[in-house]
Specification:
A hairpin with a 3-residue loop joins strand 3 and strand 4 (285-286). Helix 1 (4-32) packs antiparallel against helix 4. The chain starts with a helix and ends in an 11-residue tail after the last helix. It is globular and about 55 Å long. The chain has 332 residues and is mainly α. It has one domain. Helix content is 77%, strand content 3%.
C-alpha cells in the first residue's frame, strides 16, 4: 500500500498546526489591541508582530491548497459544509490586514483602524473555532457529497469552541507580548495572560470531557484498556502546563510562559488528531478514501519537497533576525 497519502496527511496537519501557532499569536495580539493601556503600548504590540504577520498565513494557504490537490474528495465535501464560516474568517483576516497597513498612516482615524484590527482578529479566531467544533461533531455525507444544510456549522457546541479558541489565541498573544515587551506594557500583558489562563483551563476541561461524550468511538479510544495508559499523559500534561504557566507568570518569567502556552496547544492538537484518526471527513471519509491518484500526489510531493524547506528556512530566519525585545522607537 502506498504511503504517499499518509505523508500528505501529515503535511496537512503540520501546516495547520503551524498556522494555528504562528497566526494564533498574531490574532491574540489583535484581540487584546483596544484594551492596551496606552498608544505607545499599541505601537509596541503592532511592532512585535509586524515582521511576521503576513507570512504566517502562508501555512493556511498551504493547508487549503494541499487539501484541494491531495485530497479532492474531502475538499469537495468540507468546503460546502463550511462555506459561510470560511468566508467570514477570510473577511476578518482581510479586514485585519487592511487595518494593519492603514493604522500607521492614519491621523484622525487611527482609533477606527485599531478597532478594525481588533474585530477582524476576533471574527477570524471565532470562525476558526466554530469550524473546529462543527468538524469534530461530524459532517453529513451522502455518497460522495455534503448532505447537510448551510447552517449545520451553527450549534451550541461550535459556539463554545469558537469562544474557547478566542481565549486560547489571547493566551498565545499575551504571553508573546510578555516575551517581546518590557516595562508597563509587559506588566499589563502579564496580568492579561494570568486572567485568560483561567478561561483556557476551563475550556480545556469542557472540550476534553465533551468529545468522548459526543462520540462512542472517541470514548472507547480514550477510556478502554490499554489505551488510557498511553493517552492519559496528554490531559495530565496540559493540567501541569497550566499550573506551570501560572507559576512562571507570577515569578516574572519572560520567555517560558509563551513556550508553555504553545505546548498546551500542541498537546491539545495531538489529542484532537488521535481522536479523529484516520478520518479526514469525520466520521465518513478517511484520508486514504479521499486521496487523489498516487501519481498526482507523488508529483505534488516532489514540488512540495523543494518549496517547503525554503519556506521553513525563511520563517526561521525571520524570527531569528527579529528576536529579542521590541523597541519603542521602531515603526512598521
Amino acid at each position: 500500500m502506498s504511503q504517499i497519502p499518509l505523508v500528505w496527511y501529515c503535511l496537512l496537519i503540520t501546516a495547520l498546526f503551524l498556522y494555528v501557532f504562528l497566526d494564533g499569536l498574531d490574532l491574540g495580539v489583535g484581540i487584546l489591541f483596544p484594551f492596551a493601556p496606552s498608544e505607545e503600548s499599541r505601537d509596541l504590540m503592532m511592532n512585535s508582530i509586524a515582521p511576521f504577520w503576513d507570512g504566517n498565513e502562508t501555512w493556511l494557504v498551504l493547508a487549503g491548497g494541499g487539501l484541494l490537490a491531495a485530497f479532492p474528495l474531502a475538499y469537495a465535501i468540507l468546503m460546502p459544509a463550511f462555506y459561510m464560516p470560511v468566508i467570514l474568517m477570510l473577511l476578518g483576516l482581510i479586514f485585519r490586514g487592511v487595518a494593519f497597513e492603514f493604522r500607521f498612516k492614519a491621523v484622525r482615524g487611527r482609533r477606527v483602524w485599531d478597532y478594525a484590527f481588533h474585530f477582524g482578529s476576533v471574527l477570524a479566531a471565532f470562525m476558526q473555532g466554530m469550524i473546529l467544533g462543527s468538524y469534530v461533531k461530524g459532517v453529513q455525507v451522502a455518497g460522495r457529497s455534503f448532505a447537510g444544510g448551510p447552517f449545520d456549522w451553527v450549534s451550541a457546541y461550535s459556539f463554545m469552541t469558537g469562544v474557547a479558541l478566542v481565549f486560547g489565541y489571547t493566551l498565545l498573544g499575551s504571553t508573546w507580548l510578555v516575551m517581546k515587551t518590557e516595562g508597563f506594557t509587559q506588566s499589563w500583558a502579564r496580568k492579561c495572560a494570568s486572567y485568560v489562563l483561567v478561561y483556557v483551563a476551563l475550556f480545556l476541561g469542557v472540550v476534553s470531557i465533551s468529545m468522548p461524550i459526543m462520540n462512542d468511538s472517541i470514548r472507547a479510544l480514550w477510556f478502554t484498556s490499554p489505551h488510557y495508559f498511553y493517552l492519559a499523559p496528554m490531559p495530565l500534561g496540559s493540567a501541569l502546563l497550566v499550573l506551570g504557566i501560572w507559576n512562571r507568570l507570577s515569578r516574572g518569567a519572560d520567555n517560558s510562559p509563551f513556550f508553555m502556552s504553545l505546548a498546551i496547544f500542541f498537546l491539545g492538537y495531538i489529542g484532537w488528531g488521535i481522536s479523529l484518526w484516520p478520518w479526514l471527513v469525520p466520521f465518513a471519509v478517511t484520508f486514504r478514501q479521499a486521496a487523489a491518484a498516487p501519481s498526482s500526489q507523488a508529483f505534488l510531493l516532489a514540488g512540495t519537497a523543494v518549496v517547503l524547506p525554503l519556506i521553513l528556512a525563511y520563517v526561521s530566519y525571520c524570527y531569528y533576525v527579529f528576536r529579542g525585545k521590541v523597541s519603542p522607537g521602531g515603526y512598521y
